[in-house]
Design a protein that fits this description.
The protein is built from 13 helices and 6 strands. By secondary structure, the protein is α/β, with parallel strands linked by helices. It folds into 2 domains: 5-113 and 185-301, Rossmann fold; 121-179, Orthogonal Bundle (Histone, subunit A), CATH 1.10.20. Helix 3 packs across helix 4 and helix 9 (200-217) crosses helix 12 (253-276). The two termini are 18 Å apart.
């Protein structure tokens, strides 16, 4: 299948990946695999900016709202299912699109996952207990001591990521970062990587507008519907955890909305930092005409 090509569209949140992906899918008469891990969940639509019904009708998408927040679903599960779906799609199409800004999920499909040693379940149980009793700050400090390299890269506000890294550090006696980038899976398709970007001020402006639109579209009602499940890991994400604080009576609504905007800006910054490290990505301005990207893809696919 080395004559088959996966076109990966990446970039920060709110940059316009969905519309670009649809334009390319229409041109190549193909389908789209979503690599946005927040859009996997049926209960999360407004707060994750799931493509509209019109957008979903314009090009067939896969891995959009296909599971419940109550289901355990890992990046490894996504890798397995996405590769199976690609094998199926490549029987009908020479090109397939993958669109999304979840860097680890994109990496899993393109390169395969890093392999980690097995760790006793009691280690994670103890870390979860620490989180419950002392909060995340002590765990953050512990990670900085055991693996300063990874502590620089990881979202330290994400308890799931912090605990996962500590679990490996404690269980193996080695830094979590020492297990990263230690393997690369063979893929039977070619890959072309496209990145969309814009000046930081413009990205932040687009984020602010998107959050305001989410509130208009009914984000509060959506969060209210999942409030009783707020302890689930899938819901520990920007746009939901801040509104939970409002419903808990800890924050005003205005403050919660301001925090969503701030945390989304931070998220976009981390996305750009992640993708900028990949020298194979060809970057285009967010408002580029799709034809310019198509010309680049066609050039890359042409025999030379």
């Amino acid at each position: 299948m080395k004559n088959k090509t996966l076109i990966s569209i990446v970039g920060p949140t709110a940059i316009g990946k969905t519309s670009t992906g649809i334009a390319l899918a229409k041109h190549y008469q193909t389908e789209i695999i979503s690599a946005d891990s927040r859009q996997f969940f049926k209960e999360m639509e407004i707060g994750t900016a799931v493509p509209s019904k019109e957008e979903l009708a314009a090009a067939k998408h896969h891995f959009i709202q296909h599971i419940s927040v109550e289901e355990e679903y890992s990046v490894g599960d996504f890798e397995t299912e996405a590769i199976e779906k690609l094998n199926e799609l490549f029987k009908q199409h020479n090109q397939v699109l993958m669109v999304g800004g979840s860097g680890l999920y994109v990496k899993a499909v393109l390169e395969g996952l890093d392999h980690f040693p097995k760790v006793e379940a009691s280690v994670r149980e103890q870390l979860n207990l620490q989180l419950e009793e002392d909060g995340i700050e002590k765990l953050q400090q512990q990670l900085k001591e055991l693996d300063p390299v990874y502590a620089e890269k990881v979202d330290l506000e994400n308890p799931h990521r912090v605990i996962r890294a500590l679990e490996i550090c404690i269980g193996s006696g080695k830094p979590y970062s020492s297990f990263l980038n230690n393997s690369s899976a063979e893929r039977n398709f070619n890959t072309i990587k496209i990145g969309l970007t814009a000046p930081r001020e413009l990205i932040y402006e687009r984020i602010e507008k998107r959050v305001d639109l989410m509130i208009e579209q009914g984000l509060l009602d959506e969060v209210k519907r999942v409030y009783e499940k707020r302890d689930l890991n899938a819901l520990n994400t920007v746009g939901y955890k801040e509104i939970f604080q409002f419903f808990n009576g800890n924050w005003t609504l205005d403050f919660a909305i301001a925090e969503i905007k701030k945390n989304t800006r931070r998220f976009a910054k981390r996305q750009l930092t992640w993708f900028r490290k990949d020298e194979e990505i060809e970057w285009f301005n967010y408002d580029v005409k799709p034809q310019e990207i198509i010309n680049f893809i066609d050039f890359k696919m042409s025999p030379r």
